[in-house]
Each structure stands twice: as structure tokens, then as C-alpha cells.
Amino acid sequence: MKRKxxxxxxxxxxxxDDMRMPLVIQGARQTxxxxxxxxxxxxxYLNTAYFNFxxxxxxxxxxxxxxxPAELLPLLSAFCxxxxxxxxxxxxxxxxxxxxxxxxxxxxxxxxxxAYHLVATGNLLGIALNREDVSFPAGKVAFCxxxxxxxxxxxxxxxxxxxxxxxxxxxARVLAAPDVxxxxxxxxxxxxxxLREYLVCGGMPEVVDARVRDGRPEIVLTKQKTIxxxxxxxxxxxxxxxETMRITRVWDSMPxxxxxxxxxxxxxxxxxxxxxxxxxxxLFWLEKAALLNRCNRVSLAETPLVAYEDPGFxxxxxxxxxxLVSRLGIAPSELTTDTxxxxxxxxxxxxxxxxxxxxxxxxxxxxWAYGNQAEVEFVLQRPDxxxxxxxxxxxxxxxxxxxxxxxxxxxxxxxxxxxxxxxxFAGGIKAVPLYALFCLEL
Length: 442
What we know:
By secondary structure, this protein is of the alpha/beta class. A nine-stranded mixed sheet has the order 6-13-14-12-11-10-9-7-8. The protein has a five-stranded parallel sheet with strand order 2-3-4-1-5, with helices on both faces. Strand 10 and strand 11 form a beta hairpin. The radius of gyration is 23 Å and the shape is globular. 41% of the residues are buried.
């Protein structure tokens, strides 16, 4: 399956030796990090020397002996039974969080042997390293994040690249013209139908692959539950028993947190009497594991947004809409046959999807609230420093007192309204269909 990270990986390979740092691909488990690294090796190198530190604990002994590449490389070559050539072999350190000294060794590869091309993959890096007395190679490695597949990548996997291209072309033309109140996209209904399928399936590559190969909802659900079980397994593996209990309680509370009308995170939704002091560390763990995406409230929608964040009020969204749907307990067969099966959950799912898409876009959204009188789902800071509000609606009804209040107070250059409506740009509001969010240009 084609992923957007491929462009990043090829650009990294093309960097001059003295500028190219070892690359660490990080992200939640099962987002396709290993697949992307091995794909780069297949396409662009003579051979790939692959080492998995979770599956092969004996590898750790090499790094206990030495961190010097000149001494490590002969050992690694003999271990994998392949020659490792400068510039022609891709070295892949998979699950590097299981061997913190291997992560430290990346510093020496950069300083002593920069002509060797090395990619590492890992999740829970910050969590695992907090438990080890190791030196982090700050400034000696490059990082890139890999998220679940976005909707455009989902369309590619389904063989719908022409539709994705058509959405991009239409979006670029319409949303650049502020005098077009509505511009009907001929494939609007198809875009919404496939988006609904994406919301149920989600963007975890193994789940998408199951959808493409088999298509049965029960197979998709089984894959989603397997991934969720792997996440829970990591909680036990990389946390103490007491921490694991708190982490799993927070994780288990997420469907309740998100189905509330007010989706602000509430500790009492974890269990009666729960306090922030008990569960802040658990939340931090889940965020560092890339399983939750935090959205802080701002009191003022002004630059810089970070200066006006109030960490006492925030929302948490799941990394993937499909994982969320699978945890709601709705029969997948209903979701594919009954357009009203999500019912009251549809707005929550749309909001989670938008947060997921914005994070995959490299953005760090906040939300704005004015007491209990008005709230805008997301606010984004543009590269030029101006702040743009993003209103989200699951359906086609768009009247919003909250957005009107925001506009009177802050007078933004324009507003984004993400709904099931068709494209348009009028009255200072860009109407972006939910399925076109991957085209977002601030």
C-alpha cells in the first residue's frame, strides 16, 4: 500500500552523507513503520540488513559489548548472513525501544560512519528510555512520525486514486475563489459513502489490507480487536503493575469520554472519585505511546496559541476512528448497511476523525471555549501567525451561534466549516466536505 511517508524516506536517502543522520520512524504500534522501512530497502537499495530487537533479544548483547560501528558492523553482518555495504545496504533497526543502547549507537553511526544508511523504527521510545540509564542521541538522529493511513491513502488502497485526484483538483480550484458560494462536486455522494466506510474501517494498515482482500465486516472487526489487544499488552510490558492499572482504566474510559455531549476530558468518567493527581501519568503514557491525541483549550484565539492554552481543560481523541468504532460495540454489519446505525455517535466520530486528520497533517489543534456559552471544535495557527477556527458538523446543518460569537470577538481572515455539505467559499467561510480534509491548505 502506498504511503505518504515514502516521499520523506526517499528525500532522506538522497541527502548528502555528511548531512544525513540515522532516521527514526516513530508512531503507535501497527501504523506501518516496519513496512515503510522495508519498502524503502526493496525499492532503493542493493539489499536490506534487518534486525528486530523484540523478536531477537540476543542482539542486545552486541550493543552491551560496544557502541562503535566499526566493531558492530562485522557482528551484525555475520548475524544476518549478509554483507553490509556503505550507501548500498539499508540497515533497519526494528523495535529499537527494546534495546536502548542500540538507540544510543545511532550517535556513533552519524559521527563515525555517516556513509552507512540506517533507519530505526520504534514506539514508546520516551517511555522505554525513561526506565533505562542511557544517553539519548540528541541532535544526532532525525525523526519522522507515522500515523494511521489518512483518507487519501485509504482511497489509494481501494484503487480510488482517480477520485482522490479529482477531490484535490476541485478543492484547489473552489477554495481559492472566495466568491463561489457553492460548487457542486460531481462525485460528492461517492466521497461521503467512502468516507463513512473509512470511519468504520479506520486507517490501520493491517485493517485496511483485510478490507481490501476480504471485505467482510467481521474480519475487519477481528483485526481491530487484535490491535487493541496489542496496545493493552504494551501497557503491561512497559509499565509497572500499578501504572498499568491506571493506564488501562483511562484507555477503557475513552468511549465514555467521547460519547458525552461535552467531550472535555473528565477524570470522574474514569471512575468515581478519580483525581488528576492519580491519572495524569497514565494520560501522559497514552499520549507518548501515540494512542491519544490531546487538544487543549485556549481562552484567546490569538498568536501564539500556545501562550493561551489552559492545560486544566482539554480533550483526548483516539488515534484511529476504526479502533474507536470497534470499541463502541456496534455490530459492523449494521454500520455497513444502515446509514443511521451510528445515531448520536456520528458527531463524536466526525470530530475524532477531524482531529486524526489534522494531526496526520502535522498540525497541533486547540479548541476555543467562551465559558459555557460558545465553543469551536478546533482552532489552528497558520504559518503566517493568524488563527483560523474549524467548525465540525457530521451532517449538512451548519447554523452555529458559537462560530458567530468567535467571528465577532476575533475577526479571523476566514473560517473553515467541515461538514457533509458540498464545497464552497462565501461570506468568509470555506465549506470543506469531510472527505476532502486531506486537501487542507491553511
